[in-house]
Design goal:
Largest sheet of chain B: 7 strands, mixed
Oligomer: heterodimer
Strand content of chain A: 15-25%
Shape of chain B: elongated
Number of helices of chain B: 17
Shape of chain A: globular
Distance between the termini of chain A: 21 Å
CATH superfamily of the largest domain in chain A: GroEL-like equatorial domain
Radius of gyration of chain A: 30 Å
Largest interface: A-B, 80 and 83 residues
Strand content of chain B: 15-25%
Distance between the termini of chain B: 42 Å
Helix content of chain A: 40-55%
CATH class of the largest domain in chain A: Mainly Alpha
Number of strands of chain A: 20
Largest sheet of chain A: 7 strands, mixed
Helix content of chain B: 40-55%
Structural class of chain B: alpha+beta
């Protein structure tokens, strides 16, 4: 503990309640941080790749989640350690930015830390290590660019996109029907994509799930699905060419905001009020009918009387639709949300080609499908599955696949998967290391070793001999230069699925270039940050 | 240096072997728990709730047992979670016990394989191949009698009897099988079991249960109103029949003399009278309301000779509207455009000590009501569950009419096919496939064990029997020997067996894939002092 003394030899108090705080300094602090970071990475290591194992997480409330999605595992693990929280942040930012490769980025950061620890023990200053890593990551990113391929797809040629999504999905529990889910994801993204601007707004894709049926029943709906049914059981279940009035006012007598009282003191007034009330309901329904609405979607409830009147006038209605869904419906159908009956006009109605109610299973589960909307750019992926756990996991997997498809539309460069990109980078970084004078050289070499950790983990998880496999693949990459590029062959990777070839082009295993680059950059950044910490002061438990 | 803790204090983390063991043990414990309820001679469980009153349920329905358990082990939770999942209960309705037992057996076999250093992923790959092969084998042997109505009905009867034979209803399975088949056939292919209403009335014996072709409403008829109406016109309504309140917000009555109060009261009465008049103008002789009907309007109805039924709950109203073909009305100004419901006869009937209202000869022929009678509530509850299982299976079979034999026959057929696959598959996966077939054989073994028979002997004989081509042999629990299932008339629906096979494999796979269990610190509860 650092103590300062004044001229009389009395100790200074620098930190409040100094005795109760634990403090780690110098090498100890760095080692403690590194070991915390590594233990997070160690948890995720076995989840990497198509043969990765799942983790079972039991939440504070006792709900069980089974997943192998890195971001989800870390999110639900509820970590306490500050450094471990940094790692959680790391995978989360990969999730936000790219959506895929959340496991890989943590594993990579872990192995960078592991290498750094060795260098620290040899007495290399952490800042030099950090600088070396920085240089190395730049080399790696450039090299990735060099080995990347442009990759062609169009509206009608989605096969290659589907293949990439399948790579992502193959590591999930849903890989039983990965082909189908991949197709759904690609179609969903293409439906909302703006191919000219190369942008995709994922908000327009709603991923919704309902327990029941089986995974194969999952479908893509060009429109919106609302978990509601018609307000009256005898309203028509299917409406063609619907004109939809989207209301945020209830079908109820008005409730003025100002405080008021209506006093009834004579029989006449009582009667008048009653007539008024009747009139009121009649008017509301009439106003909807007058503008030509054939379906009313309302955020609030209906009075029994209004409900019957609607039914009577053959005007199907849906009540208690949530605000978010209401907005989505408005976007999809091109309608306007109307807060008052008086403001209803024909232009404000939304249009949909088909609205239908669909029931599931033997019980009373009904959903409302709004399809063929005026603005067809909102789509819904509707997941069915045996239980809630399965649906949640499928939602996460679909999210990953959607992100991959989006990234490809934004930037259609790809690198090959199966660890081949990491191996290629490792070779390039290793070769570049010798050109740097000074201590950084060691750090750069360590970076190259760290890159090997990902293919190594892949091989290990697939039940192969990690060291043997990795060295075989590495030598293959160097030995067989492709004629076209006059360089090493960067397509050799780990044959996780036991197909028999190490050439990832034949296996159709791709990953996006930006995803990979982001992984390298993010992992390096976090490791640099962790290395720079040399003092950890934590308050005592209270 | 101490290894940093990265999780919170109360959290726990189990890795690799330990995690796998924890999940195997948990899942197998659940499987063993329900194992003894399998088969026609399966035993029941008593479930005592921890809530107030400590109510007791006696059942051998797998879904009910699993639903009532409080489980701490996460893997066991997964197993339970899958099987009380909606799929198995809603869409198949039966076979929950078999799923859990099969999944448990699969994990038991998997544990041995893991112990002999086979990677879980290899085991999963083997299981998947085996499950696919087993399904193919079943598909080859299904019998489909869709075209022959007479035979199809026989099939349904057999399935119903087989399902019911393991339940409390087995004494009267003939009776109940007929009941269930009749009820399902009335649905004409729809799987909407809502149209079959089950009413439980204690008293009498299970044999006294009956199927009624009409609709029975558990309500009483108002006093002084007709007890029997022929060719009834029914108005189904959801409207306030007490003092019809002014709905405009903020309205209140403020008067300055008693006379005015009386005036307003009279006006109110007048209003109600008008409302009743309007209702009567529909030309009805029966009025069913979801809400209360107060004495005054009830009297008015009675005067007009109209049967008024109050407080029919929402389900009852919707169902009644559905079966009688009327619409649920809330305003009564246009009598000509409101669709009325019709039925041939409304009468009050007595079941036990209770009076019920029966609507017979309704327009929609699909609906029917099953009235269950029995000695106590426990018996009735169990009977209802059993009947529900049977109805689910039957309604599914009506749509997918492929049928298999029961009594362990499908398991033996699958085991045989899977065994053959194991022999022809190179590589480590063949061990997993072999294990799958062993797990399948465990089901007939359990059935025999539960019946107190010599399972080793019986299963061996069964296996020998199945080595012949096209054998129909299965375990005949009654005589305690191997018998011909087609002669004994024991059948099961293909859809159920398929669901059992697939979801058991899926569950086993899910648990096998786990190599680490992280339990978060329990949420801190606020201390209630």
């Amino acid at each position: 503990m650092a103590l300062a003394f004044d001229e009389y030899g009395r100790p200074f108090i620098i930190i409040k309640e100094q005795e109760q705080k634990t403090r780690l300094r110098g090498l100890d602090a760095q080692k403690a941080n590194i070991s915390a970071g590594r233990s997070v990475a160690r948890i995720l290591r076995t989840s990497l790749g198509p043969k990765g194992m799942d983790k079972m997480l039991s939440s504070p409330d006792g709900d069980v989640t089974i997943t192998n999605d890195g971001a989800t595992i870390l999110e639900q693990m509820d970590v306490d350690n500050q450094i471990a929280k940094l790692m959680v942040e790391l995978s989360r930012s990969q999730d936000y930015e790219i959506g895929d490769g959340t496991t890989g980025v943590v594993v990579m950061a872990g192995s960078l830390l592991e290498q750094a620890e060795k260098l620290l023990e040899r007495g290399i200053h952490p800042i030099r290590i950090a600088e070396g890593y920085e240089l190395a990551s730049r080399i790696a990113v450039e090299h990735l660019e060099r080995i990347a391929h442009k990759f062609e797809f169009g509206e009608n040629n989605i096969e290659s996109l589907v293949q990439t999504c399948m790579t992502t999905l193959s590591s999930k529990i849903v890989n039983r029907c990965k082909r189908q889910l991949a197709e759904i994801s690609v179609k969903a993204v293409l439906a909302v994509a703006d191919l000219e601007r190369k942008d995709v707004n994922l908000d327009l894709i709603k991923v919704d799930g309902k327990v029941g049926g089986k995974l194969e029943d999952t479908e893509l709906i060009y429109g919106i699905v609302v978990d509601k049914d018609m307000s009256h059981p005898q309203m028509p279940k299917q409406i063609q060419d619907a004109n939809i009035a989207i209301l945020t006012c209830p079908f109820e007598p008005p409730k003025p905001k100002t405080k008021h009282k209506v006093d009834i003191d004579t029989v006449e007034k009582f009667e008048a009020l009653r007539r008024q009330e009747h009139q009121y309901f009649d008017d509301m329904v009439q106003q909807c009918k007058d503008v030509g609405a054939t379906l009313v979607i309302c955020q609030w409830g209906f009075d029994d009387e209004a409900n019957h009147l609607l039914m009577h006038r053959n005007l199907p209605a849906v009540r208690w639709v949530g605000g978010v869904e209401l907005e989505l419906i408005a976007i999809a159908t091109g309608g306007r949300i109307v807060p008052r009956f008086q403001e209803l006009t024909a232009e404000k109605l939304g249009k949909a080609g088909l609205v239908r109610e669909k029931s599931f299973g033997t019980t009373k589960d009904r959903m409302l499908y709004i399809e063929h909307c005026a603005n067809s750019r909102a789509v819904t992926v509707f997941i069915r599955g045996g239980n809630k756990m399965m649906i949640e996991e499928t939602k996460r997997s679909i999210h990953d696949a959607l992100c991959v498809a989006r990234n490809l539309i934004r930037n259609n460069s790809i690198v090959y998967g199966g660890g081949s990109a990491e191996i290629a980078c490792s070779i390039a970084v290793e070769a570049a290391a010798d050109r740097y004078p000074g201590v950084e050289q060691y750090a750069i070499r360590a970076f190259a070793d760290a890159l090997d950790a990902i293919p190594m983990a892949l091989a290990e998880n697939s039940g192969l001999q990690p060291i043997e496999t990795l060295s075989a693949v590495k030598s293959q990459q160097i030995k067989i230069p492709t004629r076209v590029m006059q360089e090493n062959n960067p397509h050799c990777g780990i044959d996780c699925n036991d197909v028999g070839t190490t050439d990832m082009r034949e296996q159709n295993v791709f990953e996006t270039l930006i995803g990979k680059q982001q992984q390298v950059l993010l992992a390096t950044q976090v490791v640099k940050m962790i290395l720079k910490i040399d003092d950890v002061i934590s308050a005592a438990e209270f | 240096m101490a290894i940093e803790r990265i999780l919170k204090d109360d959290a726990s983390e189990e890795k690799g072997e330990r995690a796998r063991m924890a999940s195997f043990v948990g899942a197998m414990a659940i499987a063993d728990l329900v194992k003894t309820t399998l088969g026609p001679k399966g035993m029941d469980k008593i479930l005592q709730s921890t809530g107030r009153g400590q109510s007791v349920t006696v059942t051998n329905d797998g879904a009910t047992i699993l639903k009532s358990l409080h489980i701490d082990n996460p893997a066991a939770k997964v197993l339970v979670g899958i099987h009380i999942s909606k799929v198995q209960d809603d869409e198949v309705g039966d076979g929950t016990t078999s799923v859990v037992v099969l999944a448990g057996e699969l994990l038991r076999e998997a544990e041995k394989l893991v112990a002999s250093k086979i990677h879980p992923m290899t085991i999963i790959a083997g299981f998947r191949m085996a499950a696919e092969c087993a399904r193919e084998a079943l598909l080859k042997r299904v019998v489909d009698n869709k075209t022959n109505e007479e035979k199809f009905k026989m099939d349904l009867m057999k399935i119903a009897k087989t399902t019911l034979s393991s339940k409390i209803l087995s004494q009267d399975k003939e009776h109940f099988a007929k009941l269930a088949v009749d009820a399902v056939l009335r649905l004409k292919g729809s799987t909407n079991l809502e149209s079959i209403q089950i009413i439980k009335k204690p008293g009498g014996s299970l044999k006294d249960s009956f199927l009624d072709e009409g609709f029975i409403l558990d309500k009483k008829i108002g006093i002084g109103q007709p007890k029997r109406i022929e060719n009834a016109n029914i108005l189904v309504a959801n409207t306030a029949m007490d003092t019809d309140k002014v709905k405009i917000y903020g309205a209140r009555v403020r008067v300055d003399s008693m006379a005015k109060v009386a005036d307003i009261e009279a006006a109110e009465k007048q209003k109600m009278r008008e409302k009743v008049d309007k209702i009567l103008a529909h030309g009805i002789n029966c009025f069913v309301n979801r809400q209360l009907i107060y004495n005054f309007p009830e009297e008015l109805f009675a005067n007009a000779g109209v049967l008024a039924i109050e407080h029919a709950d929402f389900d009852g109203i919707e169902r009644l509207a559905l079966v009688t073909g009327g619409e649920i009305a809330s305003t009564f100004d246009n009598p000509e455009s409101v669709k009325l419901g019709h039925c041939k006869l409304i009468e009050e009937i007595m079941i036990g000590e209770d009076k019920l209202i029966k609507f017979s000869g309704v327009e929609m022929g699909q609906a029917c009501t099953v009235v269950l009678r029995g000695a106590s509530h426990h018996v009735l509850d169990e009977a209802e569950r059993s009947l529900h299982d049977a109805l689910c299976v039957l309604s599914q079979t009506v749509n997918d009419s492929r049928v298999l034999f029961g009594g362990g026959w499908p398991e033996m057929v699958m085991a045989k096919a899977v065994d053959e696959l194991a022999r022809t598959t190179p590589g480590k996966r063949s061990h997993a496939i072999e294990a799958f077939s062993k797990a399948l054989v465990a089901i007939p073994t359990t059935i025999a064990d539960n019946a107190g028979l010599d399972s080793a002997e019986l299963v061996a004989r069964l296996r020998a029997e199945h080595n012949k081509e096209e054998s129909n042999a299965g375990i005949d629990v009654i005589s305690g020997s191997v018998g011909d299932m087609s002669e004994l008339g024991i059948s099961e629906a293909f859809k159920v067996k398929q669901a059992v096979l697939l979801s058991a494999t899926e569950a086993a796979e899910m648990i096998l894939r786990v190599d680490e269990i992280i339990t978060c610190a329990p949420r801190r509860r606020e201390d209630r002092m």
